[in-house]
Amino acid sequence: MAKQKNKKLTPTQQQYQRLASSKEPKRPVLKNCLRAFLAGGLICLIGECIRQAFIAFGGFDEKTAANPTVAVLVLISVILTCLGVYDKIAQWAGAGTAVPVTGFANSMASSALEHRAEGIVLGVGAGMFQLAGSVIVFGTFAAFIIGLFYAVFIPDFAGGGH
Amino acid sequence: MLKGHQSWVFENRPAIISTATVVGPFEGQGPLVNDFDIVHGDMYIGQDSWEKAEKSLLEESASKAIEKAGLTKDQIQFYFGGDLMNQIISSSFAARTLSIPYLGVFGACSTSMESLALAAYVVNYNGARHALAGTCSHNASAEKQFRYPTEYGSQKPSTAQYTVTGSGSAVLALEGSGPRVTAATIGRVIDMGITDPFNMGAAMAPAAVDTIQAHFRDLQIEPSYYDLIVTGDLSKVGYEIAGELFKRHNFPIDQTTYQDCGMMIYNYDKQNVQAGASGCACSAVVTYGHLLNRMKRGELKRLLVVATGALLSPLSYQQGESIPCIAHAVAIESE
């Protein structure tokens, strides 16, 4: 891919791109990974605490506690987004705040906030899925493919009836 | 008068009789805060959307510049303005409020010097007694249009730049006192095949170098003619690349001081702006505020401002197009 792209460039452009990439500060991959691990891990730890709290005090069992836990995490993420804090945490945490469900909530809340000025229907309603739309489309598609896989190879599992 | 291939020399030396700069709260925390006329404490500037806020910035700087020149709106014949928004709405809507005959221009972040060069040209040839040049940008409206929603948590790479919230306007006239616009060089569009919208500095550096070299070739002068050459918003990454390109082209930039507006407006230690500043307002507020103040204090006699612009749209880079860039140079000399 990269080579194919390079073919379209003139030798001067290629020479310049080598210069430009040599001057580009290297991305601190190791540091980013470590931060993502710590931030993502912390979010999961908080989630686990909330889940255990729902089991201990909320009358939920191991399985049913998952839904209210996700709802609480989403709520926290939306509140932090509205307070203008989430993006600042994300600059530090990178993938750590993008990958968990909080990142998905942030993508929807931030889009909704951003497009509020264009009205409720065309702004908030349509704009909300600006970033989340592709996650939903490809998430649903991936689930469908995996569902097919189960239906073909492990029909017992897919057929329901626990 | 045309000189060389792409430069104008203004024999009548139009004067910048007044300038006004307006900035947002984040710029107010930077080192140049005392050079701005108005520093806002609120990113919304009392409006209900980012776009309206950006338009207000421009309205304010334009009105303030006219007021400082001791003029009224009806004494300004033409207004040259542009900005980063689609269909340059900030400028056109501000022109609606100002109701001055208006020519909208677009050169992305090079608009500051593009509009100044055009205004100087018109005034030089008696096309107007007074002309107004102005531009603006807003961090949040630029993020919204070109990148992600402002509150979206994405990690910016160290090559990214922070769009300046602000606006700068200047009033030009043949009569009156003020720094003189003596020459301008209109740039070519240069595309070196950079596709990363988070690395505008690298995309724009060759355009800046091309225009600077053209300026000295056309005017047949040496860099030492100027006390200071500034580029608009190359920031750390682009500035270093430009320095390297000058060296490779054997261009004697070290005869003078070469700086970048994008590296002047924020405090790198305290403000998290990655490579530096960008946006139409970056070169506008630094030039019309800080640099012309230095000229008034006698610290600078001859100044060359080379505003740089990346002519991309969100659609063009999603379709895999590289980023075409441009730079326009304007020479300003003290009286």
From TrEMBL, chain A:
Biased composition (Polar residues): 9-20
Highest taxon, organism lineage: Bacteria
Residue numbers spanned by region Disordered: 1-23
Keywords associated with the record: Membrane, Transmembrane, Transmembrane helix
Membrane-spanning segments: 36-60, 66-86, 120-153
Pfam family, one: SpoVAC_SpoVAEB
Keyword Nucleotide-binding: no
Keyword RNA-binding: no
InterPro entries: Spore_V_AC, SpoVA
Name assigned to this protein: Stage V sporulation protein AC
Source organism of the structure: Paenibacillus aceti
Taxonomic lineage of the native organism: Bacteria, Bacillati, Bacillota, Bacilli, Bacillales
Gene behind the chain: spoVAC
TrEMBL record, chain B:
SUPFAM superfamilies registered for this protein in UniProt: Thiolase-like
InterPro entries, alphabetized: SpoVAD (IPR010894), SpoVAD_sf (IPR038369), Thiolase-like (IPR016039)
NCBIfam families named in the record: PRK08304.1 (NF006160), PRK12404.1 (NF009069), spore_V_AD (TIGR02845)
Name listed for the protein in its UniProt record: Stage V sporulation protein AD
Source organism of this protein record: Paenibacillus aceti
Lineage of the organism: Bacteria, Bacillati, Bacillota, Bacilli, Bacillales
